[in-house]
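Q: Now give one record:
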Amino acid sequence: MLSVDPKKIPSRLDIALDYITGEIAKGNLGPGDKLPNEKELAQLLGISRTPIREAIKTLAVSGLVETRHGFGNYIRKDEGLPVMPLAMFQLYLQSSTPEMLMELRFVFDRNCSELASLRRTDEDLAIMRECIDRLKRLSDDPDSPIDELLKADLDFHRAIYKAAGNPLIAVVADFVLNMVAPWVQKSLEVSGKWRAVGLHEHMFEMIRDRKTGDLSRESVEENMEHFRTSLLK
């Protein structure tokens, strides 16, 4: 099972981000509210103004905060409100460790594979088969561009998410998959393309044969373990 290092020491930027997003999550700061100024936040958190400034820039890029020049920084409202939960989720993902992202991906892949085994259609299987065959062809060619190999790998997992039959799960799972894509690419480069083909074949067989429970979880765990060990090399 993948593990997260509980001893990771937060950076000053993390401290600033955690405080502001925490205040939003708890309802102490809402749409249209003005943030304390840099000096006040620095004194409150016991850090310099530089990480406060960086945190506000990060929140602005994520769509949570807007800067009104000459007036200060405010929590976005109106058009920004509907995307606030997704923006906060994206922010947390961007500041997460590879181990945390892998563990989150494992949760989605394991459950999506189980649902796909129960709900998949012949069309779903055909899409998965095409992704694996494409990955095989690319793996045979030593000059295949890595971005094409990566696309074939990711397309296979997206096909599983779609076969799970729940559009909400598919959207969030794909969002997480996009976040871990650089590490998927590294696993292809480090551990070899054919190892990925074999792991995908096993997952495909479990879904094709409608296997659930331990058998289904085992195929996903093999894939995740390959993913994890690739990052440690």
